[in-house]
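Thread: Modeling a multi-component assembly for a lab meeting

Hi all, long-time lurker, first post. My supervisor asked me to bring a structural picture of a complex we are working on to next week's group meeting, and I have zero experience with this. I have the sequence lines for every component (366 residues in total). Could someone generate the structure of the whole assembly? Inputs are pasted exactly as I received them:
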Amino acid sequence: MGKISQLPPDSSPSADDYTVTVDSSTNQTKKVRLSDLVTSVVNQMSSTAITKRTLLFDNAGGIDTQTIGTTFTDTTWWTEKTFSTTGGDIVIHVALTYFASNANNCYFRLVIDGSTYSPSSTGWAQYNNETSSHRLTARTLLLTGLSSGSHTIKLQMRATSGNVYKDTNDYLNLLLVEYIH
Amino acid sequence: MVKITTLNQDILPTGDDYTITLDVGSSSTKKVKLSDLTSLIVNTIPKNTITKRTLVMNEIATTDQTITTTFQNVANWTGTFTSYGGTVYFHTNFTMWRQTVVDINIIRLRIDDLYVTPPDIYGYGTGVSMPINELSSHKLFSTIFTIDNLPAGFHTVKMQARTNSGNVRFDTNDYINMVAIEYVH
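Re: Modeling a multi-component assembly
Sure thing. I ran the full set together rather than chain by chain. Output:
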């Protein structure tokens, strides 16, 4: 932590702006440069004062095989996680692989607190031409208006026709970055 | 907004360094902990003044389109944002496909019809390249476009594409999502 006692005093300020501080090690007031004081203030800020980073899934491989039809369904193994915010905007970086039985669109969405969807309740679409072929899908999503406190998040997916699958060769990466200011 | 009047006054500082503030609520100076003042300053910073986040394109589908060797706007894939003049990173994800021959697809972002990123310094049609080997297969393109020194104010962005040979295709099953994060400070 930066301390005022570490700031160099200047008894004859001339070209720069100065401010008066109290050095409790000497119990005396002293003039210090505003730029030095600002640097001290910035150095005292916590690492999550401006942005807060939460890695929920770190290239998490699956341990099971899951078959999902045409209705949005929670993913197993990549199950619901909890995170906390201080009310800022959340930028969600999500990437995963999957495969499908039919040549068609598959849909993906994130569910926050059971009723808020990102990017929407429809989700995002990824078209699959090759069946039974692992494919990558990825999004950077912006989630605003989330209240300060603890929240849950989970991944759901569905197929347009046939099934969408994940197995032990599929991976999920999910990173939340909260921008507080 | 948090005010200095909320900071605790300490007449006899002992363990921490202190600074003097003017509490206009009582018209008197008072000594406060620098750490308390720091927290107050941080909490007073308005939202979107350090970084600014904008959802520029939200899962927008394009239309049937064939683009050859000259940069063209991808239909419907345009959006707007307002900047403070900082560095802007455009987090971009979309799909596209090829129909006839295997080759490289080249993508760029056009801003206000004045700037492109990545910059085409020599006029060779530079962009971000992505080869596609499988024909008639929608492929995900994921990148971050960057632009510096953009004037503060309102801006329009358009996604553009071209290829070295044959054509690059888009249809109603291709979607784009773009989030701009501007780093103001």
